[in-house]
Amino acid sequence: MAPFFSIPSILTTIKFFLLFSFLVGMVSAQLSSTFYATSCPNALSTIKSAVDSAVSSEPRMGASLLRLHFHDCFVNGCDASVLLDEERQAPPNKNSIRGFEVIDTIKSQLEDLCPGVVSCADILAVTARDSVVALDGLGWTVELGRRDSATASGVAASSNLPSPFSSLSELINKFSNKGFTVKEMVALSDSSFTTSLQSNCPSTGGDSNLAPLDVTSSESFDNEYFNNLISKKGLLHSDQQLFNEGSTDSLVNAYSTNSESFLTDFANAMVKMGELSPLTGTSGQIRTNCNKAN
């Protein structure tokens, strides 16, 4: 009987892997944690101060800012397209994502300091990290140098973002399409991406009624989300799919008892998230206002 994998197919797989690794390496080389060291040396401290203030005033804002970065990167890459109306008003985002006013405030402050230098995409990436730290989570090094897209796609948002009604296989497929392993998917599925969902998911109205999906510790970044899943307290269908006698049950169990492991894996996955198809070099633009193209 012929082997399941032929020699040509194995060689093709190896070539694809090498090409993928090369492209990831190119992205890493074009981004740098010191990108603004001379062009806008106070950029990171300005962003951190604004995030700390926003989260101090409303702890749920930390999860909202983290989720903005996720909804941005998961569509066409980390290009701040989520801040443009076409994507912002797409079904997965409308009445769901928030925190735009914090991003606008940060952008205004940075434009005063260094006009036309710091991209909205980088602001989203840094605010995500600083939000986790403000909620007592583990930080990570943010590579910088992303540029902003001049366009957005509501269709791409609808097709790429995971649905709250997704099955486990659908969730795995969505994350796999972006290069994430099942383990990374589980780590990234912590309720920080969905804390700002409207209460009872109303189809109209109720924009101010927010239901924390981590029902025991919604004002801190920890592993309680996984304990909730084990207790069958996942508020969304897609959440409880992670612990429903399936292939991810063991990962949920592991994270529920080992906070350090979860925080470390989450931080590593967020570094990977930030490297999803960024615009660099002369591609894209540096928006003057984050909510509209130049």
UniProtKB/TrEMBL annotation:
It is found in: Secreted. Residues 30-294 form the Plant heme peroxidase family profile domain. GO terms for biological process: hydrogen peroxide catabolic process; response to oxidative stress. Disulfide bonds join 40-114, 73-78, 120-290. Its cofactor is heme b; Ca(2+). Substrate binds at residue 162. Belongs to the peroxidase family. Classical plant (class III) peroxidase subfamily. The lineage of its organism: Eukaryota, Viridiplantae, Streptophyta, Embryophyta, Tracheophyta. The record marks 67 as: Transition state stabilizer. Its main location: secreted. Ca(2+) 2 binds at residues 214, 222. One of its GO terms (molecular function) is heme binding. The active site is at residue 71. It catalyses: 2 a phenolic donor + H2O2 = 2 a phenolic radical donor + 2 H2O. Its EC number is 1.11.1.7. The keyword Ribonucleoprotein does not apply. The keyword Nucleotidyltransferase does not apply. This is Peroxidase. Transmembrane segments: none annotated. Keywords: Calcium, Disulfide bond, Glycoprotein, Heme, Hydrogen peroxide, Iron, Metal-binding, Oxidoreductase, Peroxidase, Secreted, Signal. Residues 1-29 form the signal peptide. Binds 1 heme b (iron(II)-protoporphyrin IX) group per subunit. Binds 2 calcium ions per subunit.
